[in-house]
Amino acid sequence: MAEKGREQVIEDAEARFLTGENFYSQHLLGAHYIKDRYVFRVWAPNAQQVWLVGDFNGWDDSLPMERRETSGIWEIETTIPQEGQLYKFKVRQANGREIFKIDPFAIRYEKRPGDAAVLYTISEKKWKDGLWQGRKKRSSTFKRPLNIYEVHASSWKHHDDGTPYTFKELKEELVPYVKEMGYTHVEFMPLMEHPLGTSWGYQLIGYFALSSYYGTPEEFQDFVEECHKNNIGVFVDWVPGHFCINDDTLPYYDGTPTFEYEDPDRANNIRWGSINFDLGKPQVQSFLISSALFWIEMYHIDGIRVDAVSNMIYRDYDEGPWTPNSEGGNRNFEGYYFLQKLNAVIKLAHPAVIMMAEESSSETKITGMIETGALGFDYKWNMGWMNDVLRFYEMDPLFRKNHFNLMTFSFMYMRNENYILPLSHDEVVHGKKSLMHKMWGDRYKQFAHLRNLYTFMMTHPGKKLLFMGSEWGQFLEWKYDHGLEWIDLEDEMNAKMLHFTQVVNALYKEEKALWELEDTEQTIEIIDADNTTDSVLSFIRKGKTKKDFLVVVLNLTPVERHDFVVGVPYKGTYREILNTEMAEYGGTWTKPNELCETEEIEFKQFPYQIKTILPALGALILRPETINVRGKRSKKINE
Question: Is residue 236 in a domain?
């Protein structure tokens, strides 16, 4: 009876896998130790024969697998293999070709350049992050600060011999650093197994395996736990749109389109030299959603950033020929509905997990409720803001007055989606220069620009993301196979830049006006976005109470401006709480501006104004100190 019961469980799991509803398909497929033996299963529906091969049998044909009748799954039970040994599946494909293939459901692989799976059991962990999990469930991310430090795990820091830190070592150094710098979350570029470091993890083979390059699964679990104990969340990048093209991995697994689309034009990803998943195939949906849930539940991940969403939802996103859909358009219905399903499943199981999309178009609603036609993500990377502002800050200030809309256009669409403002790894590679090197001017002006840019990012509506090394203005481009240039911090200007980033991060967390109403139109009021002649931008960020607001003024030219007029809503005094040109940050100012008294003179929609000195290329943030909120008030915006 027990055997019959077990077989029924397997049949039920098979049926759900085949219909795209098995979200724990790693329990069915892959390698599993049961009592005194291992059970191996692999999905290869059109294979003529499959063998289990490995260290334990000399990689020969002595362990043929049997095909289950209806599912296309092959299986074998054997007592021969032992924990720690390597294995693959030898597949006689539909055309008779024989090839060694990886186990797509393996939880560990050998170190690259090899890609055999390792028989490995992840130790059961007694987690000690209950306080973090409780807080996460009780608070909405939309009402809290979210400031992300983006990290490539193997190049954050290297040993003297050039080897990267493992997660055991990152636990000891990265966690305290992120906490000290004041970031709320750390986000890792893909940690799943990948065979080539130059892909940065975006060409995956192992969707359930932490790359052995980074240490053991238990070490990563301990790292996440340590982050949570220090009130730091952990996000990971994940790539469900396309996969590594290596012949011995996922592509054309049984000799026919298995994980990929049947149409070669849809299967081949020319731009990235990879293969696109057939996101409409039920078995692929089971595979991918199982992978996402595995990372959330096995490692207590707080959020997933889905990479390359545009490639998943538009048929014409890639280079080369494409075929319109059944309605004659470019919508990839399979990708569109898969992403809705993915977000629905994850949100049902884990409502507090944050789902983020790296997506560059404006044709599809990415964030918001699925019932409204959106994809169901919590946040979308604001690529438009990133491209516009970097182009602006690279520009000679002489020409900025003619391109001021690059700084202000994002205010027109800032509530169209829930945005993250990313200054990410993509902007500091491939000859694009580091953020520091992009900035216009000599070295002093470059640092001034960088402080100005970070202030704009922190005060602009939207959550924040900054790539590692940018916090101190590393001049060299990021190199995936080298550690960051920590030696830079021996330079006074870099050290002061690091201090400034720490200060502005703390200010962002402390000032409710920068995030408390961020999901509403009331979060911001523009003071002046039309001063193109001086190239000065000013606006107010608001909290829930009338007295809780900040005045932000950005001087985007290397000209110091005296008696500069700024409109304010209430009579009283305003104190400068941040001046990016203070000497402690690398500027030349030794003391801040004096307390500002209002004058009862209208400025646009505001009944009062203050005057202050704007430092060249500087940014100011002022907070009301003593104000009368019962007197005259601002007129409605655009009145």
Answer: yes
